[in-house]
Amino acid sequence: MLIDPILTIILTLAAYLFGSISAAIIVCKIMGLPDPRTQGSNNPGATNVLRIGGKKAAAITLMVDMLKGFLPVLIAVLLNSDELTLALVAMAAFLGHLYPVFFGFKGGKGVATAFGVILGLSWPVAVAMMLTWLAVAYGLKISSMSALVAAALAPFYFWWLTGSDVFIIMSVCLSILLIWRHRSNIKRLLDGTET
């Protein structure tokens, strides 16, 4: 069902602003840990927080990053938004994480937030991606490879499980951005130096 274009704009803008809240930076500050942008991989994400702050800080970061993708989409769903609005809200939340207005447009790589928006759009696709991530992680023990494979398969899962052209296009854009944000990991994978 179509909703008011003004409401679509408001939901999309709100999703971007919500996505711009950097869980890694805030969690590290509250817990007295170093700024994740200056330690480890310098990436404000859960994996780097795990390196510099341990499991508890990483788990909180992961959960918040997922929620900031999931909640804006859930709100749009509850408002009976059309597929285009849902896709715009999803991409806005994801872009907020990658390019946060509150933190100089320097954000994380987006894996947890991407999972959150996908969970809000289609839980079967989210389950398929989670199983893919777990299978690759179990087999290769490389987190970045797991994320890259799951991201690459996202458009296929949306095609297979939803049949929505809008969601397929959105997931292609999301996957390209995720893979682009992992370009340093890809280089290390090709060099054989990725941990």
Mean pLDDT: 92
**Structural class estimated from helices and strands:** mainly alpha
Provide a count of the helices.
10
Major beta-sheet overview: none
**Regions with little confidence, pLDDT below 50 for 5+ residues:** none
Radius of gyration: 16 Å
Tell me the distance between the termini: 46 Å
Question: Roughly how much helix do the residues carry, as a percent range?
Answer: over 70%
Order of helices and strands: HHHHHHHHHH
- Number of beta-strand segments: 0
Fraction in beta strands:
under 5%
Domain count: 1
Shape summary? globular
Keywords for this structure?
single chain; 195 residues; mainly alpha; 0% strand
Give a summary of the structure in a few sentences:
With 195 residues, the protein is mostly helical.
Blueprint of the fold:
Blueprint: H1 5-19, H2 23-30, H3 46-53, H4 55-78, H5 83-98, H6 111-121, H7 123-140, H8 143-161, H9 165-181, H10 183-191
Describe what you observe in this structure.
- This protein is an all-alpha fold.
- The chain has one domain (5-191).
- The chain has helices spanning 5-19, 23-30, 46-53, 55-78, 83-98, 111-121, 123-140, 143-161, 165-181, 183-191.
- Helix 1 runs antiparallel to helix 4 (55-78), helix 4 packs parallel to helix 6 and helix 7 runs antiparallel to helix 8.
- It is globular and about 45 Å long.
